[in-house]
Amino acid sequence: MSLAEIGIEVRLRGNGCIIKDRHSKTAIKASRLDRNFTKSKLEARLSFYQKSIGLIVNEKERYIARPLHKHRGELYAEYRAAISGRKKFMRIFGKSRTGGGYKPVPIGTAR
Question: Which one of 6, 50, 87, 106 is at 20 to 30 Å from 26 when CA atoms are compared?
């Protein structure tokens, strides 16, 4: 499988090379992926860089970003409930200024 078949191309940039998605502006310096992907190491292993001659390659597959969590609304609601519970706890048991842990604060009194 070639890089073109998954929508990726390698281009020269300055004294190095980049790996770029053909359908967007997303690109990364090849040597940032791995220290073995420097231009000189790639040319030593694969031969000198040759620009594409313009062959049209049908893509077999393409990466599509999908959310990590399918039920994001539920996850966010759970997060908000945990935060509100923490705030309620801190309001009731407020942190002691003397550094001795938590001291109870009577309910209904102003701080």
Answer: 50
* Alpha carbon distances (Å) from 57 to 4, 8, 13, 27, 35: 6, 11, 23, 20, 29
- Cα 44–Cα 47–Cα 51 angle in degrees, nearest 5: 130
Distance of CA 97 to the CA centre of its chain: 40
Classify the phi-psi angles of 22: left when phi > 0, otherwise alpha if psi is within -120 to 50, otherwise beta: alpha
Q: What DSSP line would sit under 26-92, residue for residue?
A: -EEEHHHH-GGGSHHHHHHHH-S-----------S-------S-S-HHHHHHHHHHHHHHHHHHHHH
- Rounded Cα distance between 6 and 22, Å, is 9
- The pair of three-digit structure tokens given for residue 25, joined into one six-digit string: 């502006």
For the stretch 74-105, pLDDT in tens is 888 889 999 999 999 888 887 655 555 556 66
